[in-house]
Design a protein that fits this description.
The protein has helices spanning 24-39, 55-58, 64-71, 86-98, 118-121, 138-152, 157-170, 213-219, 247-256, 273-283, 306-319; strands spanning 5-12, 48-52, 79-82, 104-112, 188-190, 193-194, 203-212, 224-233, 265-267, 290-291, 325-332, 338-345. By secondary structure, it is of the alpha/beta class. The model has no long low-confidence stretch (mean pLDDT 95).
């Protein structure tokens, strides 16, 4: 890469079980105002805008056009959208800035899972011929993955419970998290997963600002430079995959340069405790790496925004000097089907 791009600001909403009193625009606007205020930029100063969301959650076509009211689409702006987690929108914005067509980009994502049945909605991601007609939901599929890990001897139920407990304990320092503090393992939701192994259902939004080169240094005292960014995908058919491993995560990390030098922090988008086991192995993370200090997706999992939040949380730690080299991961689809890895670094201190 001949052009250096950095995350210079990050903001997120307070993630809640329901936001019945707010529309998507009303939920998003305070987040957009906050992230712009962190840099002193106005909407007119943004060279490119990209968003991530899902029409399936909103229940109407082209729902993302409504949230442009929160951005301000007049005078006309350069704008794009992906029907994916906001982390993949960030990938598009990063690519745009690399071309030199813009110096700054606003990336945002949002999701309201509370109005409908999220477990039913997520079945629409599945293969439409063999799997989707059976309606296997996201928790049941994650339980298949967890059982495969147990059968392989990679983990056990007490170890999974410890991951959930650690995540929610770490989230006590995160004022935006939905679940914080002691959370009991609970009963089996779909064996072997208990309620404590599963993410909360909730609503939330997040936004980041990217900037290139000297512009990044003008906007942020310690930019989080994106040293590498890559995403890969597993076969669509679950029967064609080894659910105890994630080759796509490993390949994305390799292409992003994650294995060139150790990282001190990793924000992993692991909605289920069992998926952290898979990701730790694929990413070669040792016990010396601080994993999900924000609490991760087990503390707050707003669909379509949780992956972008992982990048934002990793960048925020670099901004405030708590990390020097961080890895951020985002996923989409059942059982870690699609995976994105970003490597972020701060300037030497």
């Amino acid at each position: 890469m001949t052009r250096q791009i950095a995350v210079v600001a990050f903001a997120q909403s307070d993630h809640r079980r329901t936001t019945d009193e707010l529309s998507e625009v009303e939920m998003l606007m305070p987040v957009l105002h906050e992230v712009l205020a962190r840099t002193g930029l106005r909407t007119a100063d943004i060279g490119f805008t990209c968003s991530g969301s899902s029409d399936y959650l909103a229940g109407r076509a082209f729902s993302f056009t409504m949230t442009l009211d929160g951005v301000g689409a007049w005078p006309p702006i350069s704008e794009s959208h992906v029907e994916m987690d906001g982390a993949f929108a960030l990938y598009e914005a990063w690519s745009k800035l690399l071309t030199g067509d813009a110096d700054t980009a606003l990336v945002y994502a949002y999701g309201k899972s509370s109005p409908g049945s999220l477990r039913d909605v997520l079945t629409r991601q599945l293969d439409p011929y063999y799997l989707a007609p059976l309606w296997p939901d996201s928790v049941a599929l994650a339980a298949l993955q967890a059982q495969a890990l147990l059968d392989a001897g990679d983990t056990d139920e007490p170890a999974l419970a410890a991951i959930g407990a650690r995540s929610r304990a770490d989230a006590t320092a995160n004022p935006h998290a939905q679940l914080r503090g002691p959370v009991p393992p609970g009963d089996h939701l779909v064996r072997p997963l208990r309620t404590g192994d599963c993410p909360p259902i909730g609503d939330g939004a997040a936004a980041v600002i990217l900037a290139a080169g000297d512009r990044a240094r003008q906007l942020c005292a310690r930019p989080a430079w994106i040293r590498g960014l890559d995403h890969r995908i597993e076969p669509h058919s679950l029967g064609a995959r080894d659910l105890t491993d994630s080759p796509s995560t490993r390949l994305a990390a390799e292409r992003a340069g994650a294995f060139e030098r150790p990282v001190d922090t990793a924000e992993l988008h692991a909605p289920f405790s069992s998926q952290e086991v898979v990701l730790r192995k694929a990413l070669r993370l040792g016990d010396d790496v601080c994993v999900n200090p924000s609490g991760g997706a087990l503390a707050a999992n707003p669909v379509m925004a949780a992956g972008l939040i992982r990048i934002g949380e990793a960048a925020a730690r670099i901004h405030r000097g708590a990390s020097d080299r961080a890895l951020a991961h985002a996923t989409s689809g059942p059982c870690l089907q699609q995976n994105l890895v970003a490597v972020l670094e701060g300037d030497p201190r």
